[in-house]
TrEMBL record, chains A, B:
PROSITE patterns in UniProt: HTH_HXLR
Domain of life: Bacteria
Protein name, entry field: Helix-turn-helix transcriptional regulator
PANTHER family cross-referenced by the UniProt entry: TRANSCRIPTIONAL REGULATOR, MARR FAMILY, TRANSCRIPTIONAL REGULATORY PROTEIN
Coiled-coil residue windows: none
High-level lineage: Bacteria, Bacillati, Actinomycetota, Actinomycetes, Kitasatosporales
Keywords annotated in UniProt: DNA-binding, Transcription, Transcription regulation
Pfam families the UniProt entry points to: HxlR (PF01638)
Domain HTH hxlR-type: 19-119
DNA sequence: CTGAATCCGCGGGGATACTG
DNA sequence: CAGTATCCCCGCGGATTCAG
């Protein structure tokens, strides 16, 4: 199983362990609510900071910048600054970002599909 | 786009809004690092609490219980208690859980595939 | 408009101890 | 072994301010 190797750090070899720890780090970075919502919001579009702020409901100024920096650092979004006044900054998913979006979309679909199941489960759990 | 409706709460109709807010809630619950790692660890296997604790590296006792409760509440994992002594509790992914695992697996694959890209991006960002 | 920096409160989350 | 409860602290994350 590919994921076992990815996530569990078999102590075979120094390089493998490095890659593995890096992978876990990336995983921790990206597997968070805001990152997902941002990726989803971007989709195939290019959006400005302020537009993202509106689209990603409930995100604070700070969290948005923070996550955008993180995504940029990992090469998931590209940040393009237009040196106008007032400044205009646009964010776009890179190819790796697009690839991950497929996963996020999958999760959105999943949520839709199982909304009913989940509501039921919650009712049952309430007891 | 299905996800837009899912994540942005179009104010059409009361039921739609309810479903949407629920969806966002679920999304917030599940889109977190520990939940993903737990789902990944469970895979097709059934694991005991202590086994999970070992497999999901770095998770604390508290976080594990907390996330397991959450996943159980949402019907993603089934919790089976064997009334023996000492007690034995086993966790298994339900069908919805399995379905979501496909997504999580996708993300693991993605991480593998783009490890190189990401390392490069980080180096570039360092400047 | 974008974003860095600062302040600060609250809660996430670890450690520990205790029950069944 | 599994789970709950308590304590406590650090850091997330919101609000605000200042800069470019």
């Amino acid at each position: 199983m590919v994921t076992k190797q990815l996530l569990k750090g078999l102590p075979e070899d120094a390089d493998l362990r490095r890659a593995d720890s890096l992978a876990r780090e990336i995983f921790s970075d990206v597997a968070n609510k805001w990152a997902f919502l941002i990726i989803e919001a971007l989709g195939e579009r290019t959006l400005r900071f302020s537009e993202l702020r509106k689209d990603v409901e409930g995100v604070s100024h700070k969290m948005l910048t923070q996550n955008l920096r993180m995504l940029e650092r990992n090469g998931l979004v590209e940040r393009k600054v237009h040196p106008t006044v007032p400044p205009r900054v646009e964010y776009t998913l890179t190819e790796p970002g697009q690839a991950l979006r497929a996963t996020v979309d999958g999760m959105c679909g999943w949520t839709h599909q199982y909304l009913g199941h989940i509501e039921d489960a919650r009712r049952r759990f309430g007891a």
